[in-house]
Amino acid sequence: MSALPLPTVAAPPTAGAFRVVLFEGTGAEPMPNALRSELLTGLLKSGYATSVVRAGGNVSPMQSGTLVVLGRFTEAQPDTLDAQPDAQGGPVTVHFRTVADQTAAELLAQVETLREATQLPKPGTWKPWFPVIDYDRCTNCMQCLSFCLFDVYGVDSEKRIQVQNQNKCKTDCPACSRVCPEVAILFPKYRHGPINGDVVSDDDVRRESMKVDISSLLGGDIYQALRDRSAKFKSRFSKERDSDKALLERQKCLTKLGEQLDIPAEVFASLPSLDEIKAKAEAAQAKAEAMLAGQSR
Length: 297
Fold this sequence. Notes:
With 297 residues, the chain is of the alpha/beta class.
């Protein structure tokens, strides 16, 4: 059995990539025009990265991931081929599927089955979500470290705040950005500025000059504290950046996490008492102060 030639030219990293190729190059016959058109349209509409290789062409390189090659092959091909196309790349698994009398819908179903087997997310459903620190604005106040429940933030060897566990960040939660007093935390996928990285205006800086008191969010009468703070500082908070929304988003994240992990309702009913919440707030504040104290040494 002979396999299709896979180029060894380096390509940009695409870890976990899933690509589909309609192959009509050396060792394969052209597909009927109607089938090619319907199949290509269906793959692209489904969100798959898809390309067509004609006579004289080769499959473009990948550094890691899964490649599905569909074609009317004139020679037998292995069902699966593990390739290492580049010394700097990761493994690439190539799946060959012969196009015979299948319809476009049947071929699309085969591609979807292979995608599910790789445990990669369905195209178009995954939304990269992570914070980015603007160090030109950041004052290393540790507010984000104190506020985030998911251990996204940490410090480097020089005691400078940094994003250390971006995969732990919860999609659509920009809460830490809302409480940053320096407008220094950005979420590139957020829909509105300045959180999404838009130019920060003087008005944004003025509105965000107040630093949120974390203990007032975690301890005491949370909702009353938020109402009081909203009334007192209403003119100083922008529409898209306020502690009210930050707390709501964090609560939503906890609820969603409970649903994903199938946590019984009674567990949520036994959440920490007021004293325990206050203790958590104090511990968070102490953690931030310790970081700052270490920085000054």
